[in-house]
Amino acid sequence: MTIPYAMLKVLKGEKPPYLKESIRDPKSESEFLMKDKNMKGYYLGDCLDSCRWGSDLTVMYEMTSKEMITFVKIWMRQNKGNFQNLWHERKIDELYKKFELPYINRACTGTDHKEIIMDIEGKLRCAHKEIMTLKPSFTHIFEGFDESSQTKRITYHVLNPVDPNKIRGDVDIDGDEFKHHVEEFKKWEEEEPTLVVTDYCYTILSDRGTILSLETILDRLNLEPIVRVFCNMTDQGCSPKRLMQMPKRERESYLGTCFGHIEKNNHLIFPFDDWNLAFYVQRWYEQLPNGKSPWFDKDVK
Prior knowledge:
Blueprint: H1 5-11, H2 26-33, H3 44-50, E1 53-54, E2 59-61, H4 65-78, H5 92-95, E3 116-118, E4 124-126, E5 129-134, E6 139-146, E7 151-158, H6 175-190, E8 195-200, E9 204-206, H7 214-221, E10 227-230, H8 240-244, H9 248-252, E11 261-264, E12 268-270, H10 274-285
Antiparallel strand pairs: 1-2, 2-12, 3-4, 4-9, 5-8, 6-7, 10-11
Helix pairs in contact: 3-10
């Protein structure tokens, strides 16, 4: 196991350059560093080490991915013309035999999915396809974002009607409802499966060789989910503070029991030290010459 570089510096009695004589908390420290030229001439690893919570093995930043990108941009701006010499005190190949960006590398979870295809972006995908014949009156189509393929997918769900013979006498059902079940089941038995659909898997197996945005890299490395569900979850509903933050119309819907709210997380947690994070930023930058590597997902072409 490689000893984290931050731990090696601690063992040598070294401390981050700013916290040495400072009582600023990490968030205040990050705000201080981004002002004026307070990061000029300092390694990115040192600056990241100055404004984090956690241990030498796991670090947390009170930033979103976009806020971390802003931090890196300002560090580059303050060290314009020299930042490529200030990623880290050491070279990557001095500390690691292999250091890669967090590419996707997995097997398809589909049973007997063996076919593969390379898309125009250079992603290796599962090319398994399944041809289905369905009964159109009982087929429901849903469209949604599929995480494994990173695309919008159409899924087909067949809803079989209830067999009237399986309805027990102790079930509370009136005559009209029972008649409806009989008619639906008869229709089900008589209808031919004339709807032919082809369902492609398209799960991304690998995106090694593609250009990753810094936003994607940070999100993949982050141990925290992008969103979190929270509230006081009591019979009294939302807290008064939470209620006052809502629009009036929405507020009226939450006067009873609240089942939680979804909001984006406002911090990042990484399973390595801050100096390693600097290496990831360096690898991101070096993907393309002249600083052309994309900052955000929307910038990926």
